[in-house]
TrEMBL record:
GO terms for molecular function: structural constituent of ribosome. This is Large ribosomal subunit protein bL33. Pfam families: Ribosomal_L33. One of its GO terms (cellular component) is cytosolic large ribosomal subunit. The lineage of its organism: Bacteria, Bacillati, Actinomycetota, Actinomycetes, Catenulisporales.
């Protein structure tokens, strides 16, 4: 059985300009806008905002 399209896989890219990405799932019903997470960027060696890319 296929996975539900309610929780699609999204890539979140670092805003520090390093090109580092995380892959996660999000609930479209609760978060219809683009996802913004504050996570650790190992290239920049600090916590930065990661924004969803399409």
């Amino acid at each position: 059985m296929a996975r539900s399209e309610l929780r699609p896989v999204v890539k979140v890219r670092s805003t520090a300009g390093t090109g580092y990405t995380y892959v996660t799932r999000k609930n479209r019903r609760n978060d219809p806008d683009r996802l913004v997470l504050r996570k650790y960027d190992p290239v920049a060696r600090q916590h930065v905002e990661f924004r969803e890319e399409r």
